[in-house]
Amino acid sequence: AQVFIFDLLSDEMFFQDSIRNYFTPVQPGIRHKADNVIYLEISPDEKLMPFIYCYWELKTNAVLNEPFNYRVVADGCIDIFFSLQKPDENFVMGFCKRYTAFNLDNSFHYVGIRFLPTMFPQLFNINASLISDRFCSLNEILPSVSTFISNNFRFQQSLNQIGNIFNEFFIDWLRKATLNPDGRLYDALAIILKNYGVVNLKTDLDVGISERQLRRLFEFYVGDTPKTFCKVVRFQNILKAKPSSQSLRENKLFFDAGYYDQAHFIKEFKNYYGITPAKAFAR
Residue 75, CB half-sphere, CA atoms under 13 Å: how many? Predict the structure, then answer.
């Protein structure tokens, strides 16, 4: 049965069963050594929950002794982000198949919008593959959204105030947007997400179109191939489980997650996270 259903009887086509019910894109919290750095997430308005996973902020609450290195792990999503100190410099970060490291100053206040997989292209009719594995100026991709951010945000605003401004903007945008859902794409997404990325691409994703057609849909709406998306979902499932280093060694959770041996798991994990599982899950 198709998991992602659309109500065609209302004035607005909308997602009744959201990707967020099956997928929780995790970004690691800030480690204890960064006592003056805070990372927070809040949920969008209920009307936007099928499209936007969260609004987030990364900020210092005191000037640090040195510049801060922040690592963004692969999460399958597309983000808009900007500094509240310079909202006119705003960016979009596409689907990434490896971690991205940002070298920040010793004082900063960044905020962003994390869109669930496929939803940025749905809302804005942007080919996700054009921004994959990189971040670029939002003005190059969506000048009107870039201008809105430049004109409506300032340094003193709280994350809740920022969220309320974005809620109003995106609800209005959603009313005007022309969504183009392909049930075959969302059938494939449902299979992948419900199986935590552990699928046989040739036999499990039989959704009524060829592998080539499905790949094209994934590249446009997700930003990469079904195979790459499965790997990121599998990695994210490990993060969500929050295993300890000891449990990974003793229980061999990587076998259940679809990795064929420990070396394979460590190599892929490091590619998506930037450090080994032992360091990431050290207690």
Answer: 22
